[in-house]
Amino acid sequence: MIDLTPLDVRKKKDDFRRSVRGYDAQQVDAFLAVVADCLERHVREHVVLSDRIEQQKHQLESYRARERALNEALLAAQELREEARLQSERDATVRVREAEMRAEAVLSDAERAVRLCHDKVEDLKATRGRFLASLRKLFERFEEYLDFEDERFGDGASDVDRFIERLRGMSGGSEPVEPTRDGAPAAAGDASPPPPSISRVDVGGSGAAST
For the chain, where are the alpha helices, taking DSSP H only? Predict the structure, then answer.
């Protein structure tokens, strides 16, 4: 198919041969003018539409490029968000583990302190028991000594009475008892054999008094 331009149509009227029985020349020329005008209008519209199509193509390509960029940015944001979430979970796991380890250490220290306190309390109880046993043994020895003095001096033993009062009221501020060489208190005119001696009492050891 031959492409025609408006100029080709306008020049075409000079190419037709003249004949007696041919078409009316004026009508043909008028029709060719109309056809040429239509072709010019269509050509102008075609040029305008072609320009618009090119512009639309450029805009479409620009939109597609923006869409690709947005998709890539969205994908990168999703990957970054996922990485941040995973990192947050890892950090949270590490912090929880560290907190658990610190809690276990604190609990272990507390249990160790409780055991030490319990052991000290038990030691103090044992020491108290030994002290009470030693003190009880000491009082028993004092009782034996007092009985011995009662038997030796009888009812008129004022020195023994004073000594008994001193023993039973040690916190009353009385004078200390002066023991003899054998451990018994000295008494005036005492020529009797020495009473049972009261020696050192081990309050922190076995709990028995030596005689």
Answer: 6-12, 25-153, 158-168
40, 6 contact by CB (below 8 A) = yes
Please count the CA atoms within 13 angstroms of the CA of 116 that sit on its side-chain side.
6
Closest CA to 198 of 187, 186, 177, 182: 182
Residue 209 DSSP SS3? strand
What are the tens digits of pLDDT across the range 157-202? 456 566 666 666 653 444 444 444 444 444 444 444 455 554 444 4
CA distances from 41 to 44, 46, 53, 55 (A): 5, 8, 18, 21
Q: Tell me the β-bridge partners of 185.
A: 179
201 backbone dihedrals φ, ψ, rounded to 5°: -110, 130
- Return the amino acid letter for 182: D
Is the separation of the CB atoms in 208 and 134 below 8 Å? yes
The number of residues in the chain equals 211
Rounded CA-CA distance 144/131 in Å is 20
